[in-house]
Description:
28% of the residues lie in helices and 29% in strands. By secondary structure, it is of the alpha+beta class. Among the domains are: 1-29; 37-132, Sandwich (Immunoglobulin-like). Strand 1 and strand 2 (55-63) form a beta hairpin. The radius of gyration is 31 Å and the shape is elongated.
Amino acid sequence: xxxxxxxxxxxxxxxxxxxxxxxxxxxxxxxxxxxxxxxxxxxxxxxxxxxxxxxxxxxxxxxxxxxxxxxxxxxxxxxxxxxxxxxxxxxxxxxxxxxxxxxxxxxxxxxxxxxxxxxxxxxxxxxxxxxxxxxxxxxxxxxxxxxxxxxxxxxxxxxxxxxxxxxxxxxxxxxxxxxxx
Length: 181
C-alpha cells in the first residue's frame, strides 16, 4: 500500500511542478528579455514632422530586416498635457501594416479631416512605434495551455478515491424524528 501512496505523491509532485512551470511560461513577457539595440531588432530613428497645407508630413527611418512586414503606428502627444493622446485616422503612406523597413519613409496625415478645428496651443509631437506584423500568440502558448489543462484534468481524475463497496439505507438506519412540542 505504501508503494502505491508513494507513486501517487510522486505523480502529484510532477503534476504540480509542471503546472507551476506552465503558469510561469504563460505569464512572462519574453520580449522583456530582448536586448535594446539588438542587431536583428526593430529601430525607429529620425522621426520628423512638418505641416504642409492641410496635411502633416511625418518622416522616419525604420532600421530592420527588409524582408519582414511591420506594423507602424503613430500617436500625437502633447508636452503640456500628459493625458492628451490622439491616434490619427485619415493618413496615407508608410503606416499600418506593410514592408516599411528602410530610410526616408513618409506618412501623410490629413489632419483637417480628423480635426476640422485644428489644434490649439503648442508642445505637440509624434510618437511612432513599429512591431513585426503577425506577431500574434505563438503556437507554444497553445501547447503549454493544453498541457496545463490536461494535467489539471489528470489530477482531478487521479485524485479521487475509488470505492467498490456500496451502502443501502433502510428506514431502520434513519434516526427518529424529534418530538413535537
